[in-house]
Specification:
The protein has 227 residues and is mostly helical. 75% of the residues lie in helices and 0% in strands. It contains twelve helices and no strands. It is globular and about 50 Å long.
């Protein structure tokens, strides 16, 4: 199994890029993948998500989840489960999580954070809080900024669905700090979007929402152009 410059196996590296980088860079990476490979399919699914073609992305990711194995299957959760949540396919999202055994503490934290979001979307606030606290404890000592961001970002979203605007913004800004420190500009933009939504919908603070909207735009572009 070949490893990339970030030390990860190719498929896991591709999934991280698909979650964190610009459309143009994902498209560039796609040209370097073997046609029809799992890595190529992950890139195509990520591009479909960015372009709003959710039905196409869902079709690809469903087949891909059945195709890949072991740690690669754990990696696909980062693309697949958030999409299922966006489409309100919560039973399927839980089935995906239940079908995979996370291989390390950081992945267990990520899975717990994903479950926290699902539980909050179902209105089960107490269980969502328990899952959130588990995720925070598991990720506390992680030295993986992408995985740490994933957990904080998901917990910010779960707090949003529990209608806790202050907690949602606090977690989103912690995620922004991690993303900026690690150079993940798009991930910073994603977390600023959550903060903006919480400021607007939960705190009824349009000035704060506007500030986070401007930050989202600022970080959703890379120097020299591209989104």
């Amino acid at each position: 199994m070949s490893r990339q410059a970030d030390g990860l196996p190719e498929f896991q590296s591709i999934v991280r890029l698909a979650c964190s980088d610009t459309k143009s860079r994902i498209a560039e990476r796609l040209t370097q993948c073997q046609p029809g490979s799992a890595a190529a399919k992950a890139c195509i699914a990520a591009l479909a998500i960015r372009e709003g073609a959710t039905a196409e992305a869902l079709r690809i990711l469903r087949r891909l989840a059945a195709q890949v194995w072991s740690e690669d299957r754990s990696a696909i959760v980062d693309l697949f489960v958030p999409l299922l949540g966006t489409l309100n396919l919560l039973d399927e999202a839980e089935e995906v999580l239940d079908s995979i055994v996370p291989s390390n503490e950081a992945q267990r934290a990520s899975f717990a954070a994903q479950r926290s979001v699902i539980l909050a979307m179902r209105g089960n606030d107490q269980s969502s809080l328990i899952a959130a606290r588990t995720a925070e404890e598991l990720i506390r000592n992680s030295d993986d900024p992408f995985r740490h961001w994933t957990v904080l970002s998901r917990l910010s979203i779960s707090a949003y669905y529990r209608a806790d605007g202050t907690e949602s913004i606090d977690l989103a800004l912690r995620a922004v700090y991690l993303a900026r420190k690690a150079g993940y500009r798009r991930l910073a933009a994603v977390s600023y979007t959550t903060a903006r939504s919480a400021a607007s919908a939960l705190l009824a603070n349009p000035r704060l929402a506007m500030l986070y909207a401007k930050k989202t735009t600022q970080f959703d572009r890379v120097p020299g152009g591209g989104v």
